[in-house]
Amino acid sequence: MTTTRRAFGALAAGAALAALAPATGASASPRHRRLIAHDDFRHGLGQWAVELEKGGTVTASRGTLEVDVPAGATVWFRKRLEGPYVIEYTATPVSEGGVNDRVSDLNNFWNAVDVRSPDDLFATARGGALAEYDYLKTYYVGYGANTNTTTRLRRYVGEAGVRPLVFDYTEPLLVANEPNRVRIVSDGSTVQWWNNGRLVFDYTDPEPYTGGHFAFRTTWSHFRIGNFRVRQSQRQHR
């Protein structure tokens, strides 16, 4: 898992453009079963665990999870999720002149397990700095990361300093104050990350992570997040 694919490179261009094309047909609308988790963000942070590198504010009220932070922040959903499932949420990068309104890093961990405490993610303390998550086995998307210049999928393997890249793109990127309607598919070996109806990452993992924890992750940024839903999904055959 060390191969890096640069979007729109010589041989990868066609595949990358296809992956970013507007979705059509059955693949754009995965068949959903029952709702297995949700949060309308009207009753505080009871379903979430917050890890902050240098402080900041994370609040949940009036239908919005607001993350306004000067450095690394990870907001974990406390309930462990088992596939197959589909996660959906909407996140808007805020640019209103605030000190953290940088428009960068709409990131996610999912199916995360900490190799130091595999039966309980929260038994191991972490402080929000990105390097502290190297001991996870997890998928990780950094959308509009590195000051909104890169969009990447990584597959962490639980080793310090090792964060294997699966895809490394220079677009799509974040747009200030524009909503991102994200859908994450975890279905056996099928790993997908969608945004606004476009399939950004489509990966077939020969040794998939099929269960674990989900998190919103960002650094030095300001986001408003809503409509968090997790549904059990019917298995897709590829």
SSE blueprint:
Elements: H1 13-20, E1 32-39, E2 48-52, E3 57-61, E4 64-77, E5 81-82, E6 85-93, E7 106-114, E8 136-144, H2 145-148, E9 150-157, E10 165-169, E11 180-187, E12 190-195, E13 198-204, E14 211-233
Antiparallel strand pairs: 1-14, 2-4, 3-4, 4-14, 5-14, 6-11, 6-14, 7-8, 7-14, 8-9, 9-10, 11-12, 12-13
Features of this protein?
238 residues; mainly beta; 14-stranded antiparallel beta sheet; 50% strand; globular; disordered N terminus
Walk me through the structure:
- With 238 residues, the protein is mainly beta.
- It has a single domain (13-22, 67-233), classed as Sandwich (Jelly Rolls).
- It has 2 helices and 14 strands.
- Strands 1, 2, 3, 4, 5, 6, 7, 8, 9, 10, 11, 12, 13 and 14 form a 14-stranded antiparallel β-sheet that branches.
- A hairpin with a 2-residue loop joins strand 12 (190-195) and strand 13.
